[in-house]
Amino acid sequence: MTIRETVISKLHQLPESLIQEVSDFIDFIAHNYQSKIIHGQPETPLGETWSQWFKAVDDLVVTPSEPEITYLQLLLNKYRQQGLDL
Description:
This protein is mainly alpha-helical. It has four helices and no strands. It has helices at about 5-15, 15-40, 45-60, 65-80.
């Protein structure tokens, strides 16, 4: 028995009140699948996608901009002038 035949068999066993819910869910799945095809999103497992994202973030080089460095230096100098030991 194929998976399609198994699903159809299960559908025949459901009460009529649940058939509409199953139909709505099938529409939801079909819509998501069509959206992925239209937008060119590959069918990559979610865990693999997150791993790729974390690797990309880990490889980023973050350097503070010049105004930030200047601000920090001025702030430290002000604290030192007030007698704070940093």
